[in-house]
Amino acid sequence: MTRHCFSCGREWISAHLPGRRDACEGCNTDLRCCRNCIHYDQIVAHQCRERRAEPVDEKDHNNYCEYFDFARRNYQKIERSEGEISREDAAKEAMRKLLGD
Question: If you write DSSP's letter for every residue of 8-50 in order, what string do you get?
């Protein structure tokens, strides 16, 4: 299990936690963000298991959360089969249909 970027999987090899301005060298994604935190959980309220933490709107951007701790996990690249669309794209398409765009 390693500490790595949630987006591209590049390993964080430094001994200290990433700072607010640290970005992944592989994809330039913010490292000190909810998606890299041990408390991040898509199922719970505000996608955070730390009840004392302030809600954060953009989970993949840096923030000032004082409860951040870089998660150690195995990187799993999400691959979609041909023709399969993401949940986000499906929601956008439904919104376009609803608004008549």
Answer: T--B---SSPPPTT-B-TTT--BSSSGGGBTTB-TTSGGGBS-
Buried b / exposed e along 5-37 (16+ C-beta atoms within 10 A)? bbbeebebeeeeebeeeeebeeeebbbbbbbbb
d(CA 36, CA 83) in angstroms, rounded, equals: 29
Q: What's at 29, amino acid-wise?
A: T
Each residue's pLDDT tens digit, 78-87: 565 556 667 7
Joined together, the tokens standing for residue 42 give 């898509």
At 89, give phi and psi (nearest 5°).
-65, -40
**Predicted model pTM:** 0.70
Placement of tokens 């691959």 in the chain: 79
Query: What residue segments make up the domains of the chain, in order of their start?
Result: 1-77
